[in-house]
Write a structure and sequence with these properties.
The chain has 123 residues and is mainly α. 56% of the residues lie in helices and 11% in strands.
């Protein structure tokens, strides 16, 4: 058998073996390659996943996140604040001219407030 024919015969086997070995090493590394260190947002995800899987009672993770976010943002500086989606909706409604408590409806034209109507029975 000529050397070229031997190479052509065994090459697919060696390539396949190399690919299989690479896949095996990759899967082992992905399972055991992580040293257990989690940083940044990975810590937050890890703790929420742990709570979700291991805590005895049922936990509303979404509610936990909503309660944790203001505290996280508060640590940045005294001028930063987290605004939840429901608060943002309420604030945007207020900016659209639907204030309650002063008895008027209005809109903002450039930098001027224009009163469009007075609410009957308002203050």
């Amino acid at each position: 058998m000529s050397p070229e024919k031997k190479i052509k015969t065994w090459l697919p086997l060696w390539v396949g073996l190399g690919i299989a070995l690479g896949i095996l090493i990759g899967s082992i590394y992905s399972q055991f390659g992580n040293t257990g260190k989690v940083d940044g947002t990975g810590k937050i995800d890890a703790i929420f996943n742990y709570i979700n899987k291991s805590y005895v009672d049922t936990v509303n993770i979404r509610q936990l996140v909503e309660e944790a976010l203001p505290k996280i943002v508060q640590e940045l500086d005294p001028h930063s604040a987290y605004i939840s989606a429901s608060e943002m909706k309420r604030l945007n409604e207020d900016l659209e001219g639907h204030f309650s408590g002063i008895g008027v409806s209005f809109y903002v034209l450039s930098d001027t407030i224009v009163v469009t109507s007075i609410v009957p029975g308002g203050p």
